[in-house]
Amino acid sequence: MEQKHLAQRQTSQSMLIFGVIIWLVLFAFGLHGLYDRLAFDSLQTDMGSYIPWGLWVSSYIWFIGLSAGSFLLSTLVYVFKLKQLEKVAPLALVVALITLIMALLSIWFDLGHMGRFYGVYLHPNFHSAMAWMVWLYTAYFVLLIFETYFALRGSLVRSSFLPGIPGIFSRILTGGRQEALSEEEVRRDRRKVTTLATLGIPLAIAFHGGVGALFATVVARDVWHTSLYPILFLVGAFLSGGALFTGLIAFFWPKRDDYWQATVHLLGRVTLGLLLLEAVLTWAELSVPMWYGVGPEYEELRYMLFGPYGWVFWVVQVGLCTVLPLILLVAGSKSPRMTGWAGILVAVTFLSTRLNLVLPGLVAPELAGLPYSYHDGRLTYQYLPSGSEWQLLAFIISVGIALYFLAVKVMPTLTGRDVA
User: Fold this and answer.
1) Which of 282, 301, 311 is nearest to 359 (CA)?
2) pLDDT in tens, 124-146
3) pTM surpassing 0.90?
4) Homologous superfamily of the 20-415 domain (CATH)
5) Contact status, residue 359 vs residue 58, Cβ threshold 8 Å
6) Which residues lie below 8 Å from residue 281, measured CB to CB, with a gap of 6+?
7) Residue 247 in contact with residue 264, Cβ under 8 Å?
8) DSSP assignment of 289-321
């Protein structure tokens, strides 16, 4: 038994070292992208007048899905009373908050004038779907902060006696409170969390389904103009958020006990079901317009499947994001490690599905002959994310990783550590 615990600690330490190395690489690589964006605006990107949305918009949708999926996973506990996930639910809220910050950073960097983001609040246009998205994100952000606080308040009070940064952080958030919460206060906090989680369900569905609706309402882009898009965005959010959380619990939950194994197994089953549903919806989206090779969206989808970047669909989206995780989840259903790798694989490579949702709608000219009418480096329908775009995305990911490990460090109860 002692050897088993020693092996588990060594595995955890190895994963931590591996995570630190990955973070250092991403952060160092991403700093140059941050400099390019702040010093040269968007001039270092490969976007232009014809393709104004690229990697950063795709990553924004990716991060928003991770956030919505993690949040909705927490509602299985706070609304639907699933006891098995009770210990990990607060961590799901923190992951939802961190990935939301990453999403907002992505779309903020994509703005032409980053300093004018407040205009949507001061000069509202109630007919704008994009403006409604901003307001929904704001409401969701506020709700997440309060729900996370009330879900963690009891453990923060217990952590206030810890030495160092965790104790200082806990005392700040609890106003220096010394005595433990009474039973009545614990019940009130639970009621508040349940109420906020219940309100958050339609809010999460509205803002992420609304992102799909935002694309679907663009009538000029045939491949987007379908009522299936909001459903695709929602299912993708559930899948990617659940897969990310599966990987985090599998590799970074410190107690490798029976509870950990059962929880990883349950999360793996949820991820498997959602992965199959995502595959069915993708087949439905592609097979109908591609069957007879007719329809206005046919050329855009053909470009995605068989164009110069068709490998993104077949190798990354189909191979690495669907087939390989399915094999790992089925063949390794009793192995937390294989389940964890399947979750990480889906969460990371799910960016490819977002690229394949955004870019095909932009590669076809709205007017025949438009690509040949004007000649300029920014007037082109060819797009491949520049090195600067990838670097800035790496910086945003490094920010998210740092926030996650900082949260776990200053709030040890997030990962099941008892500080009582």
Assistant:
1) 301
2) 888 887 888 889 899 999 999 99
3) yes
4) Formate dehydrogenase/DMSO reductase domain (1.20.1630.10)
5) yes
6) 228, 231, 232, 235
7) no
8) HHHTT-STTHHHHHHHHHSTTHHIIIIIIIIII
